[in-house]
Each structure stands twice: as structure tokens, then as C-alpha cells.
Amino acid sequence: MFINFLSSEIKKWLRDPMMSFMLFYPLFLGGIGRYALPWLSKSTRFNFHLYTDLIVVLFATMIPMLYGALFAFSLLDDRDDHILTAIKVTPLSLLEFLSLRLMIVILLSFLATVFSIMFANICNLSLIRMVQISFLTSLSAPMVGLFINALAQNKIEGFAIMKATGIIIILPVISLFFTDAKEFFFALIPGFWPAKAISCLIKDKLVLPLTFTWYYWIGLIYILFLNYLSYITFLRKNSY
Hints:
Shape: globular
Largest sheet: none
Mean pLDDT: 83
Distance between the termini: 22 Å
């Protein structure tokens, strides 16, 4: 059953024009970092290497957000078609149904983020560090999808909420300009912790209040908590 579900889910996403585009989006984003930024740097004599951490943070946070939004709209479609209600009479529980969906979106976000950072080739992070950062940021994708579904009743509301969540990308970038205790004003933003972890790795001589290990593990615990909170809120709002 699980194999059949996975197969049908992949076919469903591939039939979606937006999802098909998203399969190429990591290549597009990585191409900007690999080719466009060096060309602009040479043409304008602006040193983009001074802001490498900022660019990597944008890549690492933007991709899971987009995949999370796609998951959200896919789930909104299922709600409109009463598929979540029909799940009750099948051997597959709602938790199992959502878990499979969430695993797919996490995996896609993770692979896309790793590929984009590697292909962009704008930083000297080791493969293990890229994997660590990509895993952490990819966990925000299910949170975004569940959060949108917890608040939206239809696609129009979902689109409005998705636009509003863009601040999740902007604020972690702004936090990079703070290197003292003031940075913790952004601590409730999910992307803050991976952003600071990335900054620790790329600007290793920069003195920050915490080390990479602290930023990473606090960020991991926090995003797992937000995913749980989003899931519970989704169930309560939709009465499943």
C-alpha cells in the first residue's frame, strides 16, 4: 500500500506544472550563484564574496519554503476533494497519510537544497556541513505546509498566507547583520538558527554569541517543536 501511495503521489506531483518547474528550480537557483553572481561581480566590481553567508542563507531557506507552499496547495486540493475525509474508511490512517506526504516534501527540499548549494559553488563548505544545514532547513517545509493549511480554508486564503510568510525568509537575512545579543530579537523566527549556523561556518573568524553546535541543535529542537505545533493546530482547525 505504501509503495502504491508513493507512486501515485509522485505521478500526481509530476502532472502539476508548478511541481514540474520546481524540479528544475534548484538548477536555476544554483546557476545564479555559479554564473550570474560572478559575472555581476566582474561587471560591477562589487565583491559578492563578502556576503556569501547571506546568499547561502537565502538558498537554504527559500527552497524549503517553496516546497512547503507546494505541499500546502496539494493538501488544500485534497481537502477540496474530501480525500482527507475518505481516508477514514481506508486502512491508511490520517497520520500515516500525512507522514508519507511530509517525508516526500522533506526529501525533495533536502535534495534540492544540497544540490543548489553545491552547484552554486560560492562557499567552501564540506559535504557533511552542506548535508547538516540542508537537513535542518528542509524541516521547515512541512511546517510551512501545515501552517498554511491550519489557517486557510481555500487556495485564495492559502496564497495570501503564503505571501505573508515571506517574512520568514527576510528576517533571518537581516539577523546576519547583528553579531551580539541583539540578534536574539530574531530567535523566534525558524530560519534564524540555521542562518546563524551557516554564518558560523562561512565566516569562521566572526565572533558570535554562540557556536555552530549550539545554533544547530537549538534550531533542530525548535523546528521539530514548530512542526508538532503546526500539526496539532492543523488537526484542531480542520476537525480531523
